[in-house]
Amino acid sequence: MDKKKIELATFFDRLDSKINGIFEEKKKVIKVKICNKLIEIWTNSEIIEQKCITQLKGNLTDSREKPDAIFKSWIDDCSNYFGEEMANSRGYRREDDGCIAIVPSIAFFCGNFINNNYYFCCQKGKEESIVFATHILQIMFAQWAVGNDLILLHSAAVGIDGKGVLIGGSGGMGKSTLAVSCLKNKLDFVSDDYAMITKKGKMMAMPVYTTVGLNEDSYEKLLKGENVIHVNENNGKKLVDISNYEITDALEIKAVILPAKTDLDEAEIVPINSGAILTKMIITTLNQLAFLHEQEMVKEIALRLNKLPAYELRLTSNYDKNAKFLKEFIKNTL
User: Fold this and answer.
1) What's the rounded Cα separation, in Å, for the pair 92 and 226?
2) What is the per-residue pLDDT across 221-268, written as a single tens digit (0 to 9) for each?
3) C-alpha span between 48 and 222 (Å, rounded)
4) Which pTM does this prediction carry?
5) Helix (H, G, I), strand (E, B) or coil at 218
6) Which of 67, 117, 235, 246 would be 40's cystine partner, CB 3.0–4.6 Å?
7) 174 burial class (0-12, 13-18, 19+ CB within 10 angstroms)?
8) What pLDDT shows up at residue 132?
9) Which CATH number applies to 152-333: 2.60.40, 3.30.980, 3.40.1000, 3.40.50?
10) Are 18 and 81 within 8 A, CB to CB?
């Protein structure tokens, strides 16, 4: 992306002028409370509307207050906003007043930090695959977080008595299964996959979604019978509605946990160097949020997490044992 070609303030003015007509013709409005903030999500797409409603079911509100932020998501030809050459040029740019990113032939997304408006345009003709194959809500929430002294982190978060831990690691390591096991065992539960953490002061983790993602085996053992919203065609992972469960508003984070599957009969926990787990959490966060080359975000996550003690939790095959062991560890050690 040629930074000289785009002045952000001018770009946002032009963008709003162009999409006003789209939303005047057809606009669905979803209102949600996230981190005690009221957010309106505007869209002209039934696919996007349905995804927002299902993933954010427990956060929906009918509040008539002025929103703290507006997310605008629509379907159109991305070249209408940049020209064909720019639309085919991948890149990301962040400044004090906003950010903008282009993923060629797929989407562009941007955020105006001054007026708290955030945008996601899906390439026309590819909307169905884009909405379900990409992380559209995560990307919009991540932009909003950048402008509001928060970080959207690819991590589970659970705890007890107000004290919590982040559970990191790449897919398949047992992060979601451990988090949902904790939920079922009455621990404080914030998330199984994404948590919003504060950038300053005490590190607090707050929930975003009221869904969890589990493989078939974990779903059968932990949440069998609960409403399955979507099944990933590539890996069979089920997106499950947990809006009927109690989700904790905030937890103070005291440590980072890396789960490891083992053949042990009893769970174990050992201190580890934080470097390895922080690297995994940063890479998975940036990959899923399409900010792989955004060095500022790398620094922010590393600075926020590098002082936390890190532990490897060696799991048994018994989900309840793992959850109860982690509960006692948090209560007695942290």
Assistant:
1) 39
2) 999 999 998 887 778 889 999 999 999 999 999 999 999 999 999 999
3) 28
4) 0.89
5) helix
6) 67
7) buried
8) 55
9) 3.40.50
10) yes
